[in-house]
Amino acid sequence: MLVAILFYFVYQSVHSHIIFGIREDFSKAVPYDKPVPGIPGIRAEQCGSCHQAIYEEWKTSYHSKAYVDPFFQAYWRKDQHIWICLNCHTPMQPQQPWLIKGLEGGKVYKPIKADNPHYDADFQQEGITCASCHVRDGVIEGPYEDIQAPHPTRYAARFRTTDICFTCHQVPSGPFQFYNGGPCSTFPEFEAGPYYKRGMICQDCHMPSIERSLVSGGPVRQGRQHFWRGGHFPEMIKRAVTVQLTSDRKKFQPGEMANFTLKLTNSGAGHKIPTGDPDRYFTITFEVVNGAGKVLKLQEDTMRRWIVWWPVIIEVYENRLAPEARRDYHFQYRLPENTEGLKLRASVKYHIMTESQYKRLQTKFGLSVEVPHVFTITEEEFRLNEPIPITASAQESQSPHCNGPKG
Ligand code: HEC
Ligand code: HEC
Ligand code: HEC
Ligand code: HEC
Ligand code: HEC
Asked: In this structure, are residues 272 and 240 in contact, taking their beta carbons and an 8 Å threshold?
């Protein structure tokens, strides 16, 4: 009994209520004590009155949805609206209802809170808004050294490096959390890979470069689009993978063993696929279906991280695909005597989370709208009683596509 009680207290003191640790750079909201002179305000729409094209791009991005995102809302409810989430999902101080004065005993879940007199609920809806990256001390920071604008400007080197992404996209482990590289390990994956060695940065793929005016009638400059496409956009995921399907013979006879191989290459992502949120995964599926649509054989492989969440977080294993790495998936099927109507279907799908996690968010955490969370990235289907369209390949992309999606 005593041991049980002791265990309980030790467990309570080491067990974290959140799945990550805190690092200095995101431990506080971005202060906004001085207004920016020369412009009416720092709401995205107000920046957009002059920087229209960038505003329109940002609006379609998931940065602009980081607060209203129904998955964020459901998980935040699950985590009892803990304050720390807001420092990355709505980083500006006026976007947050509270001021955090300190932590009782240094514990994340014991904040000393005060009401924020400058809280603006509409501003909160903007998530990762323009000001989160650009406004510091009443000045607008950006990538240019020398520029004249109605507002004060200042060059900041982080815009041209990965530092600007690091704060939010490399989330550290907390005490007694044993992840490989952290709960969100995009940076070590990127830095171990080939693109980093070639001098590329996150922006090269996620903010395609473009020549245009920053404001209507302004000089044309070399800048970047503000799309940040990722796992919510099947078009972007397709850029990450090359799939090639092959079979060992051009035509199969009844009763024969058929061998298929699906070669999957991470040909376009600068980090592992999937990266970021540990819920994300891929499935690689082979199915044989008959004329009536009945599945006769099913093989499903997954590409993901396996993490034990309780009583302590331990990452047991992972098989995500590193940049430019290839993996072959094999499938065998003995054909019956009658092959009439039989088809082979091979597909690669991307999942934002499992079906059971999705259901749990619906039944327990108030997810009330339908959100797409499975995307088919490639699918091929052919008849087994006809010549096989060998090495049929859905994706021809060989090199990273850094020109990005156009919208
Ligand atoms: C009244 C119009 C106007 C508003 C409002 C405005 N800007 Fe600007 N901004 C400009 C002009 C003009 C330039 C300079 C354009 C040029 O020379 O190409 C500029 C330049 C910039 C630059 C480049 C600075 C550098 O040093 O690299 C950034 C970044 C920027 N603005 C962001 C913002 C953000 C963020 C907001 C909202 C908080 C905003 N602007 C609001 C007109 C405006
Ligand atoms: C997640 C951070 C982030 C957010 C949010 C963001 N920007 Fe930027 N912005 C950048 C980066 C990085 C660059 C530097 C691009 C480059 O190297 O040219 C940049 C560049 C700019 C520039 C200079 C022109 C250019 O393309 O380089 C302007 C103007 C600008 N941003 C305006 C805005 C406005 C307006 C918003 C909101 C609608 C916004 N930004 C939101 C990161 C951000
Ligand atoms: C202030 C924190 C913050 C900064 C800075 C930031 N991000 Fe993000 N980013 C987020 C959050 C939070 C999300 C998830 C939003 C959601 O899905 O609700 C996200 C999502 C993304 C996604 C996935 C979008 C999708 O479709 O799922 C990409 C790609 C991305 N960011 C790239 C970048 C890059 C590149 C930079 C640096 C130029 C950057 N981010 C800077 C917080 C940030
Ligand atoms: C060579 C191009 C390239 C580089 C460099 C790159 N990415 Fe990506 N990134 C992609 C592609 C393609 C995808 C879509 C695949 C996917 O969603 O897994 C993606 C997806 C993402 C996602 C969505 C998570 C997911 O798995 O769905 C995030 C977040 C992200 N990248 C962040 C970053 C950050 C941060 C950096 C810099 C450290 C970076 N990326 C560098 C190409 C790149
Ligand atoms: C250090 C910054 C940071 C903190 C703190 C943070 N997040 Fe995030 N969050 C991110 C980034 C970056 C992404 C995007 C990763 C990706 O796309 O794979 C993200 C993605 C998410 C997503 C996935 C959204 C989607 O549409 O798939 C959810 C849900 C989420 N965060 C919830 C939370 C909750 C709840 C908390 C607080 C317990 C929290 N986050 C704290 C940076 C952060």
From this structure: no
